[in-house]
Amino acid sequence: EMFRPVLPMLASTAATVAEAVSEFELSSVEWKLDGIRIQIHRREDEVRIYTRNLNDITAELPGIVAAVSGLAVRQVVLDGEALWMTADGPATFQETVSQIDADAPPEGIVTFLFDLLHIDGEDLLDTPLRERLERLEALAPELKIPGLLTSDGDQGQQVLEEALRAGHEGV
Among 57, 61, 93, 167, which residue's beta carbon has the most beta carbons within 10 A? Predict the structure, then answer.
């Protein structure tokens, strides 16, 4: 239901990327960010942003509201991460939290999206991840978190190395 957030799905941990990938026929290996987990609901011009604890923080994230308002869609629910980006790269979680403020510059806090849960009246929760990611890529390629679907541990390791080089936590 629009503007009624759902609890987020959480990833599991593994000792290595190869181990994580080997557990499944196909795995999503994505950058792990040290930001604030968000769920974004939009219907026409109305946007609401919720935390993993389901708190509404829309007023504190005008840059993310603007980014989602510009998407070519009438209605959408997105899962992602809000992160304070500095000239030197991503900030720590504590720095990001300290910047969550309506007076923060809108361009400072950015969003990285990793799932599409609903679009224009169609619920996608039971849709295979591959299809949700393809549709997310088509809708918001500039906001989609880097990653890939793979069964190859070496490919997953390459995504990890890219994430670390970019200053993020891992995958």
Answer: 61
Maximum CA extent, the chain = 46
pTM: 0.92
List, for residues 108-150, the tens digit of each pLDDT value. 788 999 999 999 999 999 999 999 999 999 999 999 999 999 9
At a CB cut-off of 8 Å and minimum separation 6, what does 138 contact?
Answer: none
8 A C-beta contact, residue 21 and residue 11 = no
Q: What angle do CA 108, 71, 145 make, to 5 degrees?
A: 55
Cα angle at 72 between 57 and 7, to 5 degrees?
35
- Give catalytic residues, as residue numbers: 32
Categorise residue 3: left if φ over 0, alpha if ψ from -120 to 50, beta otherwise: left
